[in-house]
Amino acid sequence: MKRWLLAGLLALAVILLLSPGIVGLIAERSIERQLENAAARDPGYAVTTARFDRGWFTSAGQHRVPLRDPRVLEVIETLRPGATTGDAPPVLVITSHVDHGLLPVGAAARDPAAAMPALASGVSTLALELADGTTIALPGELESRIGISGAARLRYRLPGGEWTFDGTTATGDALAVTADVSADGRDVSLLASLAGWQVAGPSISLDIESASLDWDATMTRVGLPLGSGELRAVGLRLVGGGRNLAFDSLAIGTDSRLDGDHVNADWRIRLEGLAVADRRYDARLEGNAYGDAAATATLIRRLERAAETSTGAPPAGELPYPGAADDLRRLLAAGSRLRIDSLQVTTPHGPIEIALQLETPAIDETPDWPGIALATEGFADVTLPRALVDSSPDIQSRLLPFIAGGFLRIEGDTYRLRAEYARGLLTVNGAPLPIPLGGAAR
Fold this sequence. Notes:
- The chain is an alpha+beta fold.
- Helix content is 24%, strand content 49%.
- The longest helix is centred in the N-terminal third of the chain and has 40 residues, at 2-41.
């Protein structure tokens, strides 16, 4: 009995004293693999290792993430004008302390739950480095954990409080963001929530009662992350950065999947209490998009690269990048469908209702645009309340040509448009209207 007890104590000593160094090496390689997976998914967010000092029980490291996404840069520029100008993009600097070993004793001192077997468990601080060399410490901490299988969990926590920098003050309750990533980087889930936030500065004013994001996706063979997600926001008021936006609630949901060689995506939007010119509007939208997976992935990647390198929206009439028309033509010719099952906008004068579908079957060889137009079929059904049209001289003047041309017909208390399109012939409210296509398909 004593012999077995001694053997058990020796085994425990091996686990506690010898495993951390070995596991530390495995953990370092696992971290590198996760960074490689992230860079493969989105080269724009390629993470570089500034340093990584591996010890026996603990390690310390610093990683740098260039911020090139136009949406992220826009937020930074709004909070600190001029921060995104310069030859180099702003950089997110992540400084980490990591405990490793199958039983990370050091991590357990921070959180007993961290004592569960893992390759590594650590905590990081964040800072924003601007092009001029200025470094701004960001509040909150990033907790990370790499399990024995190599799967990673990242959790960013910001306790409630008040923060001030460069004349901008932010206050709010606790904010939490949790991301789970599989060992191979293919499966990602994201859960985020915040409440009671206010941001006030020289160029921006933001109030939001609450917001949450729940998203699960799997990286597919064509390089598109597909899955389901929902974004919710309640009580938002935003003034600044050229925007004036306010609504009571917003919910955006999507479900996407691969159907053979095609992407099939359902999406829905519900907006309540949108404030426009002292009036309030509600809107609901449900639809579906279906298209060739490889062509969709190519189009999305090139649009993202164009957005990263552009200095603003392209001039009117110009495409976002050279070759965009050809990429779109290939997408449509591979078989595509865009469907708006229901778009309803509630106005003080009655509801606006729209249904729409455009579908192009798969074509053996990519035709020119007239050929695609001949193959495409679709319909539209639009209803406008007469009271809305009659209430505004501006709306009346804009719609008068459509009313005079018979595109909008009076049906009781509404204006109605019913249109069908097939093989170059558009039928509007029963009247045929040939479309000059300028040629046939090749």
